[in-house]
Design goal:
The structure holds 2 protein chains of 2 kinds. By secondary structure, chain A is mainly beta. Helices cover 8% and strands 33% of the residues of chain A. By secondary structure, chain B is an alpha/beta fold. In chain B, strands 1-4 form a two-stranded parallel ribbon. Chain B has a two-stranded parallel ribbon with strand order 2-3. The chains are: A mainly beta, B alpha/beta. The interface between A and B is medium-sized, with 25 and 23 residues.
Chain lengths: 102, 208
């Protein structure tokens, strides 16, 4: 499967709260980060959790977030960051949607 | 411990676990017995799998770190593809996709799984209880420096602390920096400095 994003791209995590087994943590939803690397393509855990085959496989990325983006009240740690694995269907190009979830 | 082979108790005896099975304990027993009964697995295979799981220890990870400190070409391969590099040392990573994150001049890495307890078990054994605790999982992404401080690890203000949240198919190991004063050390000597916690990233390696 062709990856939609490349390392260095700015992306926003969808601000969405579907039910089920979701491996996109709440604390990054609606937040903007940068693609750190493409991990490969993997079966979709949201399907696997219900004993379905998880196909088609989906690109998985590591996304870097600045601490200050995740926790706006966090002061004095400008350099710090968090990197999280996120499946492609949870990402959209930064700027494509209104910032949410803060 | 006294010469008589007894030891004094300063704690109450741990209660026997005589309560009823929990839902999942009963389910595990039922499924295991069915699989054995139907000839899918044998009791010996189940026992051996548990033994192999318990036998994995941080010593394997320490060997990988010591090799990376000693052999720059190996380190490059380890950072490129962690699982393949471990296989070179005869360490079977199973289905695990290992990502090795290297501490730098002013960069400190630390690992967590905020959603559950994902951990590089094939490389460093079973995770410690605190790694699975909600307090660690929720706090280390929110206030990593405070959490590191509670482990006795103070990271200078002008360094970057980078937290890696294992949310999907990757597993992580921190490659710490080689301690000063270890020039000329053998890999076995170096491995002695590498602890489980420094491969999780909550501490630094031991000093020589």
């Amino acid at each position: 499967m062709t990856a939609r994003f490349a390392p260095g791209d700015r992306v926003r995590v969808r601000w969405a709260h579907p039910p089920g087994h979701i491996r996109t943590p709440y604390y990054v939803r609606g937040k903007t980060g940068v693609i750190e690397r493409i991990c490969g393509s993997f079966r979709n855990p949201e399907e696997l959790a219900y004993a379905r085959d998880g196909q088609p496989v989906r690109p998985l990325y590591r996304v870097h977030f600045d601490q200050g983006t995740l926790w706006p009240d966090d002061q004095g740690r400008a350099n710090d960051g968090v990197e999280v694995e996120i499946f492609e269907h949870w990402l959209e190009p930064a700027g494509a949607a209104k910032e949410g979830g803060t | 411990m006294s010469d008589t082979g007894q030891h004094s108790h300063d704690h109450a005896p741990r209660p026997d676990q005589d309560g009823p099975l929990t839902y999942y304990q009963a389910m595990e027993t039922a499924v295991r017995e069915l699989l054995i009964e139907k000839g899918v697995v044998t009791a010996e295979e189940v026992r051996a799998a548990v033994e192999a799981m318990d036998a994995r220890s941080p010593a394997q990870g320490a060997r990988v770190v010591a090799r990376a400190w000693s052999d720059p070409a190996f380190k490059a391969r380890l950072l490129e593809d962690g699982s393949a590099a471990c296989a070179e040392l005869g360490i079977d990573m199973g289905p695990t996709h290992l990502v090795v994150v290297e501490n730098g001049e002013k960069l400190h890495n630390v690992i967590v799984c905020t959603l559950c307890s994902c951990y590089p078990r094939f490389l460093i054994g079973l995770p410690p209880d605190w790694y699975k605790a909600r307090a660690y999982r929720s706090r280390v992404v929110r206030e990593p420096r405070a959490v590191l401080g509670e482990f006795g690890t103070e990271i200078p203000d002008d360094w970057e602390v980078r937290v890696h949240d294992s949310t999907a198919d990757m597993r992580y190991m921190v490659l710490p920096r080689r301690p000063a004063g270890t020039e000329g050390w053998s890999e076995d000597q170096l491995a002695e400095l590498v602890t489980r916690d420094c491969m999780i990233g909550v501490t630094l390696p031991k000093s020589p």
